[in-house]
């Protein structure tokens, strides 16, 4: 069976190399949020069980000044090295041309600042934008999706231009490349005024836009609007460990449709699958196949357990390249990986529905099995009719 980003790159002295992806990675943040003053999406008020999985509060720790380079020693991981010097893991990876599945070894020399690179650029400055591209300085409240929308480019294009993933985090003052956009005028060197909040995102059908204020939690917002926490998470591609920030705009869905036989959690996950399918331009039959597959694999629940290392909504397996444990339990990311195609967060590592030649001509069961490679290939057939009715109810 078949995936936010691993928190560290493991290091060992054994003959077998240590891999970048480890189980201690934080779950993804989606959309890519600026986190100057994080407000957790979950709070103790959600449920005691959810509180156990919530992202812990940020703790300020003393860090050493970052040298230009660092020599790896036994027991090191990239995330620990970054934390020791007050750096972001993603920045250290980028400086060294590493990925989340890369391997580091004792004696390896890593660059920790831009000064350690060939060009002595300022530590926080990214590579110069490519020809025909512009750059943008991230402001408080920005997300990659809101920046892309504002500048008339796609979110995927901005992610690719900056080596970011769906679970990456951006921060105020960071400069990012905007492909195919004219560079905005340079700002005055004087201290800028507090930027205006980003424009409100257009709410999804049947939903309303809401701008986060200090002290908000997803559970409080959901309660205030009379909807479930799962529905709000699903409508915004968030997970129980996501972080929300003041100034961020989210969609508060209308009252969930009542679907006989499905719980509120199942309906919310079904809505997530349908929303992402629509965003990717997947035909209705493909969305129905995804709904039926998720029902067979997890009962349309984002579970934290499964056969061997299978996890999440589609029971995707980290050992088969579907992502880290945190990534395959990110319901939005797992759904994109199931659909595959140009927006596949796994790239060519895994094959989604849209990557299967002639999938439209396969039976419901054959199409689901081509993605899942299940030991029980006929099990999906029974969900074909129910999946079609769920899709009709959600719209």
From TrEMBL:
Domain LysM: 68-112, 134-178, 208-252
Keyword Cell inner membrane: no
PROSITE patterns assigned to the protein according to its UniProt record, in alphabetical order: LYSM
Keywords, alphabetical: Signal
Signal sequence coordinates: 1-20
InterPro entries in the record: LysM, LysM_dom_sf
Pfam families (UniProt xref): LysM (PF01476)
Superkingdom classification of source: Bacteria
Gene3D superfamilies per UniProt: LysM domain
Name listed for the protein in its UniProt record: LysM peptidoglycan-binding domain-containing protein
